[in-house]
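Notes from hallway chat w/ T.B., transcribed later so I don't forget. T.B. wanted the structure written out for a chain they're using in a teaching module, and asked if we could keep both sequence and structure tokens in one place. Agreed to drop them here.
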Amino acid sequence: MRAFVLILLASFLATTVASAAQPFNPITTDLPSAINSELPDLSSTASGLLDKQGQYQLGYSVMMQMRQHGALFNDPETSEYVQQIGQRLASQSTDGGGYYHYIVLRSDELNSFAVTGGWVFVFTSMIAFTHSESELAAVMAHETAHIVQNHVLRGIEDQKNATLLSLAGMLGAILLGALGGGGGNAIEGGIVASQGLAAQHEINFTRSEEEEADRVGMQFLAAAGFDPEAMGDIWVRMMQAQSLQNSWVPAMLQDHPVDSVRIADARERAAQYPPVPDTSSPDYYLIRERVRVLTAPGDQDTQRVYAQKIANGDHSLATMYGDALALMQDNKASQAVPVLRKLIAQHGDLHLLYSALGQAQAKAGDMKDALATFRLAMELFPRNVPTTIRYAQTLMSDGKSAQAHDVLLDLFNNVEPTPDQIELTAQAASAAGDLGDAYYYMGEYQIADGNLPLAARQYQLALRTPHLTDVQRKRISARLREVRDYLASARQQQHQSE
């Protein structure tokens, strides 16, 4: 994480004694963590640290702010890949990494962040900058280690008059400032706006905390099967990037200062592990090109860049996949189809290729072939999240909304959905004429979006829908009672505190 975010949080965080409760699931069943306005008050002068629930709620609130400001990189393929890499790393921690979430943010800044409660944010530019999967994993391992080692909470002392909500607002303002490339002025403005601060103190991580994050992160890196040498490699390359443009210092270096001693330490620690060959998966190379294409500036002729690479003899999997995506972006989907067919013939075990081919066929108007491609992909990669989402979107485009609804429900009931997936399920239900389910899932979406009163309204509308089955009516009624009970309890707590 950017150092100033963690230390700034520690500088103004008041604490309260709390039990070590497990974190809430904000999307599917447990309500409190989905509601920004119901974050627990930390203005108590009692001494203690945030429990896991409080940490998780704060991090979730920051994520919601990023989402509401459109900062999330809403690409199912990239999100699933980054989460898988993160889980490989987090599973090496003492708690097994069960509540860690790795979120991709769209930004030109070369950086990554970690906030409390297992929330790690990776910028698209960082993905594109890396040369190997292990380098990307090294950055994520470092951020994961900051969370595991409680570097935020360890810096809390003698603080007063702060709430989780105000802290979440402060962190959100800082992160949004960083995403916009505003640098120090935007960051300071965000602090003043959300906390009323006139000044700030030195906020860099201490050297010992950075060293600890490197050391612990490397343990995660090696245990997860990645190359420990990659941690030193990524720091060296970032320093090289800085030397090429002295006026531009990567944000990651501003917050995670790198010097020859730190690099030497990383090299020395890595040498203690057995050598690891290049472990980069094909998915890594595909995702890196995917990010490059989807985040390219509008005035950049991305397809021409890939065409030049191919003309120069580069026919690698990544280049050909990037070329196909660029053709699709350039409204030349029919030209992308044969490229992707050839790649599948050579690499038939990569779900990313099937999804891209199905999308290209649909965009080219070959809906029959597109649906056949997706049906095959669903057989080969059952309940793969991005493949299922793309299949459902294609079905809806072809007027098969009821089938799309069934496909999404199967995924919804077996894999924890994101708010966008819940919304898509509601849209499919509505298009299929199942208004009861449409209202129900819009209620679920409003819970995920932190708006319980509106969620209650959606459930009420669902219950008024004719032709509900007994199962639907019982499920909707139970959810409405749960929301109403929670809102009543929240109101009662508020009255008692006044």
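Follow-up for T.B.: The chain has three domains: 3-270, 296-380, 382-498. Might be a good example for the class.
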